[in-house]
Request: fold
Amino acid sequence: MQIGLINNLRAGRSDRLVSRMLGVLRDYPEVHHVETNRAGALPYAITDLARRGIDLLLVNGGDGTLQHTLTEILRNESFDRIPLVAPLRGGRTNMTAKDLGATRNPLHGMRAVVDAARSGRLHERFVHRPVMRVSFDRGQRSEYGMFFGIGMIPRAISLVHEVFPPGRTQGSLGAGLVTMALVAKTALRPRAGILVPDKVDVQLDGEALDRAEFRLGISTTLQKLFWGLDPFWGQERGDLRMTFIASDGQRFAAAAPGVLWGRPPAFTTPENGYVSRNVDRAQLRLSCGFTIDGEIYGPRTDEVVTLTTDRRVTFVRA
Reply:
């Protein structure tokens, strides 16, 4: 088995940890590793590893590094066949890696994966997941990732980068604190400042929602978000877990705690402005920005965004 590692040197971890990772790699000479310090270098790094016929790809970075890597693999088909992908918790935000069961220390995670490959026990760490394809108007572009959001979520991400200094507090800790603060503010002053709702036309599996203004719209193929949040309660069989909360959603303050952890009160129905479904396809017409795995895409007038899950990846728990 050919093993490769993408090592994002600027993913939010300390220089000391980066140095330790490079030191640990000396114990694993069979691992082909490439180091990057910017997103623009990832295509070249992945192409280099693809030429080596990599079967197992470890990704030492955060959610953004993993999202760019998945896009290179699935959209640009850099590899002859899709490799196994093992995300390490090596960035500021590691929502996907954590959901897949990765250990907190990326060094321990890397050792565990490579040791499992050496001993022939790698299959015990397999986690099969659909990957979200996000297609939008900008040059008929498609990105692959695990999380999509509009409304409160991209605003929370932007606010995290404004409020917290660079480093670990810009990760899940900062995102969680800011999200909770915005939820509280929405309950008190739901249309003030950055909480002005977004106008979005939504179709889920071809069925239009009867609301067109939302505080929140999110979709994922993960089981849990940061802080263990699980704001989804659809029972359908689709791979895209989606939740929308309309601007006129009733009794938001009372609903929020249960909604955030997937235990919504009985009144959170579509008639009252709350929709949560598992679907195969979603289409949104919007003029607001959105986020894919933490990366913000600015607003474009009447942009059409389509979400599907046309590819599956075998991840490896690190």
About this structure: The chain has eight helices and 16 strands.
